[in-house]
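Re-run with default settings, no changes from the original entry. Doing this only to confirm the output is reproducible before filing.
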Amino acid sequence: MEPRAVPVERFLLRAVGRTDVGAQRTQNEDAMYYDDFLGVYVVCDGMGGHASGQVASDIAIRTIVHSIKTGDPPPAPGQDPLVAAMRAANAAVYQRAQMDPTCHGMGTTGVGLRFEENLVHICHCGDSRGYLLRHGQLQQLTRDHSLRNLYQDRPDLIGTLGPATSNVIIRAIGLDATVEIEHNAMTPEHNDVYLLCCDGLNDLVDDWMIREIMTSGESLEAIAENLIRAANNNGGTDNITVVLAQTFLDPLWVPQHAYAPQVHY
């Protein structure tokens, strides 16, 4: 009997995703992707008139997945593959917007996770968010690229770019030929639960309530449904999308350096 191969990845991953049009919209312009085998999870929230937001988020997700799976375009030296994939999505959305008059000015937010052996990479652009529930505490992992936050960072600019309402963002995928993708990395732990969501959730459900729902002890499926239900109960003014990813330490994982290379003559 052949022994089971030592797993390359330290963590087992399990994710669920749910999306809902909300209580007041007729079209869903959000898109999501989750793949436990690849260890990649993404949420996009499209924007633009005549349903072009739906086009933008769909192009972004398709481009990100293609790039992660094929390595095309290849990441620059030291660049995380998810950053490269989101930059490729920016180019694809922007190109479509330039070619198709009905899509002019469209764009999409994007937030994603990519797991590797001892790290989880968090990448985002816009105001879709990443959260982490660890040991019962909820932590926001991303900071919105919003006009409100820009004014906090640069008080000298207050008022120069218009009123800082909560839904005004200063960075998104597809609005310009190039875009900066914010990237951070951290070490995952056993039984972490990561939440990716669009502002249709966090604009209507306070962080304390998100935490209450996520610590209910219910299944990931039930938690996702309850998060969407909470947003709809509070008005459901936007599309609502959530992806939940939970980590489990693989009991069969052993660091690669613990194994001496086997040489056969």
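The chain has one domain: 11-143+173-247. Residues 1-8 have pLDDT under 50 and may be disordered.
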